[in-house]
Amino acid sequence: MKLLLDTPLSPDVAAWLRGLGHDAVHASEIAAQGMADEDLMRLAAAESRVLVTAGLDFDRLLELWSGKGQKVILLRGADYSPEESKEAVSRGLEAIDREKHAPSIVVVGRGPGSKCAAPE
Questions:
Q1: Rounded to the nearest 5 degrees, what angle is found at the Cα of 87, between the Cα atoms of 83 and 78?
Q2: What is the tens place of the pLDDT at every residue in 36-87?
Q3: What are the Cα distances from residue 40, in Å, to 49, 56, 62, 63, 98?
């Protein structure tokens, strides 16, 4: 899967995802660090990447995403360790995979039961 990880997540998570066979890039690796949310979403859409972030307000994310067909994994909460990020992103990818053809936002929190997919 093609993924773009936002700067609140560690670049180590992108490296880990590449090790699993994903085409994952971190914003810092492509000079997108500090990019406005709208621009980051446009970049992800232009490259057909799932945006993975922990830095957007959920209401704002819904507003940006609505009707645009973008897939997003949103980690809710703050201060995820790299290991917690990996576990949460894994659960998000599973949910995105179940919704293969539907644009969706997947919200993932801490704990195994804290995700939901919101197809368009």
A1: 70
A2: 878 888 889 899 999 998 875 655 766 766 666 778 888 887 788 889 899 9
A3: 11, 11, 14, 14, 24
List, in order of start, the domains of the chain with CATH numbers: 2-119 (3.40.50)
On whether the CB atoms of residues 86 and 54 are closer than 8 A, the answer is no
Buried b (16+ CB within 10 A) or exposed e, 4-39: bbbbbbbbebbebbeeeebebbbbbeeebeebebee
Amino acid code (one letter) for 88: A
* pTM summary value: 0.85
Say how far apart CA 97 and CA 40 lie, in whole Å: 22
